[in-house]
């Protein structure tokens, strides 16, 4: 499963499900009958579920790995089938668990039963026909996303670009129209998913209701050792803490976009034009560095440049192997070999950070079975993921790595998942999960915070010994804010949309409007052309067709600063938070590993307390970290009218004006 985190317990592949069922269609001895073995106690029941789960897990995961790294009808069929078997088995276990309600059992067993009900983010109806339909839709949507291409031109002149190529346009081009074309092109891929997604939402809701939840969103919010209502209030509270910082960053960015593209084209009603943020979903503005860098003359540890150089060196080495006048095939092969080489070097560098803190090296099979770069002979899901194939050391990552900073930090992120798997593999299968899903997402990102410090970058020779003055600090903080702060409202709005779809407050006919209303409200971004209901823009983001809950990433962006501070304290560091690196610190490493080993075996509040001293999620570490930048932004924005008016507010104003017919 891919970063299969909580809810799905193993979220696998796209979050679909967790494992498959038994082998072939033969009845398994233990639970062929709908009934559990006679006289089974609750503790025995959980022991049996753990065993059955472990047994069926590898083949389900294999089918998912296959359909994600080799997209075609056959692999989708197999994946859908294994997911169907697993979900049927899961429903059976959950039914069997009912009979233990109210009985005496160990606290660990009670927790395991609770987690069992939350094992998938794709609750399936019991009706076998609907169950099969659901898993087929899920696999089809995943395949459509993975294989999606934007094609222009006719016949021999036709040119098709995949997501990676379209993202490159947003990353590098500063041509307004070229970016708009790339942005619109990718969003056209999602249009045909609309019907499937509508049906998908109906089917999972039916499954969630059968399990006793009001809807799928309520079920997703139930995985946090608090009530679903408390959980959504928690996200509001945390967002309230960071919103002022986001608004300052937004204001500064808008000013710079207007300076680049003109007062009119650089904004839409005070919001950022969706195709101009350097990112397809406006979730990470790091690619706008050329426009947003605060101090052009101050040191700027540019990891992308260093990685490009590394690639060029690798390429030159490959060429020396073939001699003076290489054929075009040899040039091509040298490029592929160098791409693979640099991807592995980036991964080795990330591994080194974990190992320096006392964690194990990745197993040999990791290096053999991982997908490091995009294969050329087939479609694959390029969206990065981390997999635990068998709960016994066959861990892998799947990426289409390019030598740039974004992918370099993504490798640390994915290895965070992998180290979590390796650490909690000794837990019973039902506890092999993050303390909550936000923990799973935060492990690697915490390492990135330490990796991005000048202190660490000097140790690896990425930057020289030049003194770190105020300007360099602001540059570094801006770099980090463009990745982290810009993300926060995005991390929130995706599930605000899905919660609304699932609870019926967003109607099928309003999918796209509701999406852009939320983008406007939280992120302050807007499309520059009308995006009516013939579009399905949510489907252009991996986690929607992939059905991966997204609140986890919002929580992770808060938690990772708490973990960072906790580990800095453990390492004995004194000084401003943003300068702390615990590279090589075994005490911090042990504290981290102890947390990872716990998996989901206790409430996350207890686990958080062990690492940070507090049992509450809190954004004060975020604010402490970014304090210098926040001051600087306030000065930069002085005299500007910051903020924006979301269209919902425009619309209600318009509603009061009878003359206007349509909003
Ligand atoms: O999906 C991911 C990871 C895999 S769990 C690459 N992330 C979110 C995204 O890309 O939208 C990491 C940050 C947010
Ligand atoms: Zn992740």
UniProtKB/TrEMBL annotation:
Residues 1-20 form the signal peptide. The keyword DNA-binding does not apply. GO terms for cellular component: membrane. Pfam families: Peptidase_M2. The keyword tRNA processing does not apply. This is Peptidyl-dipeptidase A. The active site is at residues 414, 543. It comes from Pseudoxanthomonas indica. Chloride binds at residues 224, 552. Zn(2+) 2 binds at residues 413, 417, 441. One of its GO terms (biological process) is proteolysis. Zn(2+) 1 binds at residues 413, 417, 441.
């Amino acid at each position: 499963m891919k970063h299969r985190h909580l809810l799905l317990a193993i979220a696998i592949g796209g979050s679909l499900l967790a494992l498959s069922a038994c082998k072939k269609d033969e009845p398994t001895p233990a639970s062929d009958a709908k009934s559990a073995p006679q006289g089974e106690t609750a503790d025995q029941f959980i022991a049996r579920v753990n065993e059955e789960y472990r047994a069926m897990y590898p083949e389900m995961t294999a089918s998912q790995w296959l359909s994600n790294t080799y997209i075609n009808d056959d692999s989708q069929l197999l994946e859908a089938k294994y997911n169907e078997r697993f979900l049927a088995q899961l429903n059976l276990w959950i039914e069997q668990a009912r009979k233990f309600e109210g009985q005496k059992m160990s606290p660990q067993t009670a927790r395991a039963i609770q987690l069992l009900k939350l094992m998938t983010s794709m609750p399936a109806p019991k009706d076998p026909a609907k169950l099969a339909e659901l898993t087929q839709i899920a696999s089809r949507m995943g395949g459509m996303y993975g294989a999606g291409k934007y094609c222009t031109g006719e016949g021999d002149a036709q040119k098709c670009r995949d997501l990676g190529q379209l993202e490159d346009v947003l990353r590098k081009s500063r041509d307004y129209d070229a970016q708009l074309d790339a942005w619109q092109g990718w969003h056209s891929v999602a249009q045909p998913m609309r019907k499937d997604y509508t049906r998908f939402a109906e089917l999972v809701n039916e499954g969630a209701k059968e399990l006793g939840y009001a809807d799928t969103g309520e079920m997703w919010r139930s995985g946090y050792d608090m009530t679903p209502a408390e959980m959504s209030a928690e996200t509001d509270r945390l967002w309230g803490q960071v919103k002022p910082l986001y608004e300052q960053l937004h204001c500064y960015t808008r000013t710079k976009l207007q300076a680049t593209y003109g007062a009119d084209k650089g904004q839409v009603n005070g919001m950022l034009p969706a195709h101009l943020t350097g990112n397809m979903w406006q979730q990470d503005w790091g690619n706008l560095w050329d426009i947003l860098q605060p101090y052009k003359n101050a040191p700027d540890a540019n990891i992308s440049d260093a990685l490009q150089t590394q690639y060029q060196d690798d390429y030159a080495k490959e060429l020396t192997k073939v001699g003076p006048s290489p054929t075009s095939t040899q040039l091509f092969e040298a490029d592929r070999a160098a791409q693979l080489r640099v991807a592995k070097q980036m991964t080795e560098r990330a591994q080194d950070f974990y190992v320096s803190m006392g964690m194990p090296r990745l197993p040999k099979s990791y290096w053999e079975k991982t997908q490091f770069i995009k294969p050329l002979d087939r479609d694959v899901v390029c969206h990065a993921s981390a997999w635990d194939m068998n709960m016994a050391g066959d861990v892998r990552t799947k990426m289409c790595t390019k030598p740039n900073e974004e992918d370099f930090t993504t490798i640390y992120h994915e290895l965070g998942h992998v180290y979590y798997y390796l650490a909690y593999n000794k837990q019973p299968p039902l506890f092999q999960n993050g303390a909550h899903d936000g923990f799973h997402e935060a492990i690697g990102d915490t390492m990135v915070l330490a990796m991005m410090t000048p202190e660490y970058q000097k140790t690896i020779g990425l930057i020289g010994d030049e003194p770190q003055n105020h300007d360099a600090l602001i540059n570094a903080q801006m770099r980090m804010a463009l990745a982290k702060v810009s993300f926060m409202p995005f991390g929130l709005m995706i599930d605000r949309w899905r919660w609304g779809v699932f609870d019926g407050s967003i109607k099928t006919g309003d999918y796209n409007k509701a999406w852009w209303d939320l983008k406007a409200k939280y992120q302050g971004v807007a499309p520059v052309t009308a995006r009516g209901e013939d579009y399905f823009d949510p489907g252009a983001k991996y986690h929607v067709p992939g059905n991966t809950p997204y609140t986890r990433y919002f929580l992770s962006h808060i938690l990772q600063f708490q973990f960072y501070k906790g580990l800095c304290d453990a390492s004995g560091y004194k000084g401003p938070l943003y300068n702390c690196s615990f590279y090589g610190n075994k005490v911090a490493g042990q504290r981290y590993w102890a947390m990872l080993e716990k998996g989901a075996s206790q409430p996350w509040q207890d686990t958080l307390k062990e690492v940070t001293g507090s049992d509450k999620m809190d954004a004060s570490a975020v604010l402490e970290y970014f304090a210098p930048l926040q001051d600087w932004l306030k000065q930069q924005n002085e005299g500007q009218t910051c903020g924006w008016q979301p269209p919902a507010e425009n619309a209600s104003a318009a509603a009061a004006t009878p003359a206007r017919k349509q909003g």
